[in-house]
Amino acid sequence: MKIGIIGGTGGMGKGFALRWCANHDILIGSRDAQKAREAALEYISSAESEHLPAKGKITGVDNLSAAKDSDVLVLSIPYENIDSICSQLLPYVKESCIVICPIVPLTKTSAGFELISFREGKPSAFELVQKYMKIKTNLVSAFHTISEKKLIDTKLVLDSDIFVCGDGEKPMETVNGLIREIKNLRPIQLGPGSLSYLAESATPILINAMIRNKMKNPGIKII
Ligand SMILES: NC(=O)c1ccc[n+]([C@@H]2O[C@H](COP(=O)([O-])OP(=O)(O)OC[C@H]3O[C@@H](n4cnc5c(N)ncnc54)[C@H](OP(=O)(O)O)[C@@H]3O)[C@@H](O)[C@H]2O)c1
Predict the structure, then answer these.
(1) What is the whole-number distance in angstroms between the Cα of residue 102 and the centre of ligand 1?
(2) pLDDT under 70 in the chain at which residues?
(3) Tell me, what CATH number does 38's domain have?
(4) Which pLDDT belongs to residue 157?
(5) What is the rounded CA–CA span in Å between residue 177 and residue 108?
């Protein structure tokens, strides 16, 4: 598969690229194609120095090219930029393209980290993105509770669960498969996309727990 990562120059983008280049071609997307090319070169060099079994190629392109060419597209961008990025890109994705939304509507307040959706009564990231999807059932939300630091550290075995929400059975199966390709990650179905806010709210819980209890990049595992 060809996996495009919009905002692939960020920390999560690097983690996804390093974890999935074993089996897939990766398109690192950026608003700035040169920045994307430089990030791709850096990720290739990390993959080589860590001796990752990379069967796929990592290439840097502008966000629009990544959107047009991908079989799976990850929206690895801040919540605040969903409207501008999705309105520009999602009309151009292939009909069959599966879109993954790991976006967390996170804000820092005097109390700690909170969910913008609860705090300001705004839509979940999933609901906001879904407005721009040509085929609404191709949107799947996942990866809210895995930290970029853990994803990037490919020597680390990630013994964690990943909540998955969506409205299309086949797209969710594809995303479950991509989660399982990352050793010891387990997909956990939460329900339809309308419940994505529950998965998104797990991130501020983890960050507050991490800060107040001096934990190191905690994740979630249901036992
Ligand atoms: N970091 C984590 O540990 C973590 C964990 C779980 C979920 N998430 C979620 O995953 C997503 C990506 O996380 P991240 O930490 O990688 O994010 P990030 O570093 O803040 O941003 C990722 C990329 O988004 C692009 N971007 C920044 N500002 C933008 C703007 N105004 N308009 C369009 N694009 C913009 C940038 O790419 P270009 O400048 O190259 O275009 C940037 O490299 C976020 O929604 C976050 O909530 C993060």
Answers:
(1) 10
(2) none
(3) 3.40.50.720
(4) 86
(5) 33
Ligand 1 pocket check: which of 18, 74, 76 to mutate, most ligand atoms within 8 Å of Cβ? 76
> CA-CA distances (angstroms) from residue 149 to 92, 198, 202, 213?
31, 23, 17, 18
Which protein residue has the closest C-alpha to ligand 1 atom 38?
A: 30
Instruction: Flag whether 217 is in a domain.
Output: no
Q: Number of structural domains, the chain?
A: 1
| Per-residue pLDDT, 53 | 85
Who lines ligand 1 at CB under 6 A?
A: 7, 9-13, 30-32, 35, 76-79, 81, 85, 102-104, 106, 144, 147-148, 203
Whether 218 is covered by a domain: the verdict is no
- Identify the domain containing residue 127 by its residue range: 2-212
Query: How many CB atoms sit inside 10 A of residue 113's CB?
Result: 17
Q: pLDDT tens-digit profile of 166-207?
A: 999 999 999 999 999 998 999 999 999 999 999 999 999 999
Is residue 222 situated within a structural domain? no
3-state class percentages of the chain: helix first, strand second, coil last, to nearest 5: 45, 20, 35
Closest atom, ligand 1, to C-alpha of 105: 47
pTM attached to this predicted model:
0.98
**Is position 223 within any domain?**
no
